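Let's see one such:

===
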Amino acid sequence: MRVAISGTHGIGKTTLAEALSARLPGHVVVDEPYYLLEEQGYEFGFPPSSEDYRAMLACSVRILRSPSPSRAVFDRTPLDYLAYLAATGADPSEQVDASTLRLAFATLDLLVVAVITPESERVLPAAELPGLRSRTNDALLELMYDDPLDAWQDTPVLELSGPLDNRLAATLDILKPESAGPGPGTTEAGAGRPWPV
């Protein structure tokens, strides 16, 4: 199974990715493109520039399109970088080829989107660049629902907007086999339609 987690910075994606990987037999966490590119010698600005976000977007697409690993939890997706680009004034639909993006998202069994909530702002540590964080969260939600590139319309999407301590259980519940309950694409919302938990 291949599951990916999207969300703005400081929202608990890595924590959820590690917890999911620990509960899904044989799964590994695939680090976010920022760290993978940094290991390759890429030097990011602070805050990252549009060029930096495009580099992470391209890396994220390559990672998802790679058939290996087949059992993985991805920390971030191309959706994140499209949201950051939108939050900094770029037009997301001009950043990547739609068919390439569609092929990347087609490799996923579930796209989990963690969003800012009143509880997350109260409980989670304060994040850097709060304005950018908030704008990216809003851009991500707009992109997720509008899907201007028709890239994730066939990918089951789970929006995590409920209690923080329920995120792992909510995600695992969606991933259950059909015989054990709703799975990807089997809820009333249908495949590719976000449903909040």
Remarks:
- The domain at 2-196 is CATH 3.40.50.300 (Rossmann fold).
- The chain has one domain: 2-196.
- Confidence is low (pLDDT under 50) at residues 178-192.
